[in-house]
Amino acid sequence: MWTLRQSSMASTTPFHELIKKKRDGLKLTDADVGDMVAKVVSGEAADVQIGAMLMAMFLKGLDAEETASLTRHMVDSGDKLEWDEEWRELLVDKHSTGGVGDKVSLPLAPALAACGLKVPMMSGRGLDFTGGTLDKLESIRGFKVSQSVEAMRSALEDPGCFIVGPTARLAPADGELYKRRDVTGTVDSVPLITSSIVSKKVAEGTRALVMDIKVGSAALCKTEEAAKELARSIIDVAKLLDVPTTAVLTRMDVPIGRAVGNALEVAEAVRCLRGEGPADLEDLVCVLGGELLLMRGRALTRAAGRERIRTALRDGSALDRFRRMLERQGVSAADAEAVCAEPWRLLPRAARTTPVLAKRAGAVRGIAGLAIARACQRLGAGRSRPDQPLDLAVGVVLDDALHVGAAVHAGDVLMTVHHTHDLPDDVLDLLRTAVDIAEEAGPGDTRRDRVIVILS
Length: 456
Known about the structure:
Blueprint: H1 15-23, H2 30-42, H3 47-60, H4 64-76, E1 92-96, H5 105-114, E2 119-122, H6 133-137, H7 149-157, E3 161-164, H8 172-181, H9 190-203, E4 208-215, H10 224-240, E5 245-251, E6 259-260, H11 262-273, H12 279-295, H13 302-314, H14 317-328, H15 333-341, E7 352-357, E8 362-367, H16 369-379, E9 395-398, E10 407-408, E11 413-419, H17 425-434, E12 435-438, E13 451-455
Helix pairs in contact: 1-3, 2-4, 2-8, 4-9, 4-10, 5-12, 5-13, 5-14, 9-10, 12-13, 14-15, 16-17
Pathway: Pyrimidine metabolism; dTMP biosynthesis via salvage pathway; dTMP from thymine: step 1/2
InterPro entries: Glycosyl_Trfase_fam3, Glycosyl_Trfase_fam3_N_dom, Glycosyl_Trfase_fam3_N_dom_sf, Nuc_phospho_transferase, PYNP-like_C_sf, PYNP_C, Pyrmidine_PPas_bac/euk, Pyrmidine_PPase_CS
GO biological process, one term: pyrimidine nucleobase metabolic process
């Protein structure tokens, strides 16, 4: 077992020499990493040098000690949020590697707050096929993702949770590196993913973390082996930085729930907060929340933790926390009440809907979540560049009867498209082909449980 060694000595090595050192497969010292991060944040390092260093890290890797050093220096590059000492052991958060229809944070944060925990959740915007958590919440009129530290503290006092965007001064080194990873082809580096995730969680003051690491054709990690590698990296580095972490590996081939699209997912999240499912979404919220309750001593067993979350979803206490969170973050009391009572009284609706029909009878052998997500991106639900505006009303809702293993007849509605403009034929074709219909039931994966394994 190794430990993170911190050095008080500043490195005086020029940046290009640090690049060469990592390029040659040599280990960077803690002082080297600290000097590199300082030069990145100050602007002393040129773009081309930062790109070269990212590629050297990608190709040669970082060991656990280097990754922990990078993470700690990224945290130290900016402000760290500090909360009331009495909350210290109650501060928890969840992070997902992203998926199709992933609206889990919306019901999870208030459910955890209803169970007595404090949730300082910092989320991001979407880039690629659908919007992120912040984009989804912004479909609620008045919701403000930017909040002062004083407002965040008030929200942690009551209702016990908030969902905001990261401040510019929170782990700024991560922002500088992150915006260059996509253009340098280094997004899927396990050490860089680890340091990016953990640095923000440490900086926001989280004391326990649950990771939802997606596995499958519509996930960052395509295989269970890749997901386990990422999980172990995050768990080890987070623990070194005093953030106990559990990773839940979950299947990500078919969408979570029935809705894909920003406002559509908010409406479905409210259904979950009202105890009205969908079942796979509710189960995933209960699993992730149950892990945090167990980690913080608020449940004696995983089963007990999951049941506490489920009770909060079904007795109205989580919904009440959600309503109060909306009010804290700028939504008027009347609008917050309307969203919780009947979301479509307030959420933006697409002007048009079109059903996607099955062209033949048979058994559903698979549902390609990634194809559905790409179609939603074409409709305007996702962005291909950071400054691209979204159409928050558009998306796709799967029929309630559609699942792997289901029998369908020619002409059955598979899903409904919510769109603003004319629906291109290629988008309809993409959605039709997303549902694999065999003449008879075959060896398709009919498992409904999303959880693969839990690591800690």
